[in-house]
Amino acid sequence: MTEISGHIWNGEDFDEGSIIIEDGIVVDIMYGQPTSDENYTIIPGLVDGHTHIADAGLVLDGRYILEELVAPPNGIKHRYLRNKSKDELILDMSDYATRLKMNGVSKFLDFREGGVEGCSMLRNASDDAIILGRPISNEFDPNEMESILKISDGIGVSSISDMDHSYIEKIADITHRSGKKLSIHVSERIREDIDFVLSLEPDLIIHMVQATKDDVRKCADADVPIVVCASSNRYFDMTPDIRMMIESGASISIGTDNAMLSPSANIFDEFRTFNNILSTQGGSLIDAYRCLIRNGCKLLYHEFPFKFQPGMDADITIIRSSPEDITKRNQILDIRHLTPGYRGE
Length: 345
Known about the structure:
Elements: E1 2-9, E2 14-22, E3 25-31, E4 40-44, E5 46-52, H1 66-70, H2 76-83, H3 86-102, E6 105-112, H4 115-125, E7 129-133, H5 142-151, E8 154-157, H6 165-178, E9 181-186, H7 194-199, E10 204-207, H8 213-221, E11 226-228, H9 230-235, H10 242-247, E12 252-254, E13 257-258, H11 267-280, H12 285-298, E14 316-319, E15 335-338
Parallel strand pairs: 1-4, 5-6, 5-13, 6-7, 7-8, 8-9, 9-10, 10-11, 11-12
Antiparallel strand pairs: 1-2, 2-3, 4-14, 14-15
Helix pairs in contact: 3-4, 4-5, 5-6, 11-12
């Protein structure tokens, strides 16, 4: 039996108390005065809402604009992926996925380039990936799409500006008929037609850094969550209006985006950037935590209670720090991620 005391996530905020784990299961949560002097922050295992982990081995030798670095098909990232061997990419992805888990991430939603083979490589590299594949054909190929959807958890589209609209509509249709997830990069470099995007009925969309308040409200009305990748936006000299997004009623979660731009594989580094932007916009720390924890879980677990309950698997992230101190950039975080099946020390 293991007892951990500190600040426990209650679904919306933190309460002081202790959590008891036995044989890999949460057996009790006791709110109130902690039973020890330990100062942990105790939260569910996290969901990283948007990654591209195949470029983890790419070390940038300069600063690049968005189109140079990531635009398909000939951005630096895409040339790198074509030139790396299959074994090297699998090794890089496996290492990065392991470090994500060590830093508190239970699942990550990855836009996986490279068609069927790209999805297969990530499936071999990690059991924690929610794989959103991408076709490589220039024209819609139903056989390729069916093959991708057999091995993946859905489809991740680069942008409606990168593809013919009729092609995207066909991708959306076959994805929905398969019962799998559809996700799209939206309004990252330029503002894009949110009405067309929503007509595709995506399960989630990424970025929205160039979106208007009306665009975001339409997403909220359609119950389509938005994943914000604040650090990669900052790299390209863009700042998402996170407070506006939250106040518009949309469900906002956090993604680390390209591994080459997030070499630490630490979602708390991303969280610090996200919270810093939100705080300068007049937002609150607790809203940032709700985006990280509750809204991240909602991307995958619609029936998830978003708080600890007796009988749950012990999928828990524990940080030796207070919730406030986690946001301090000079704080070196001691993170433990207990996965289901944990039997104690």
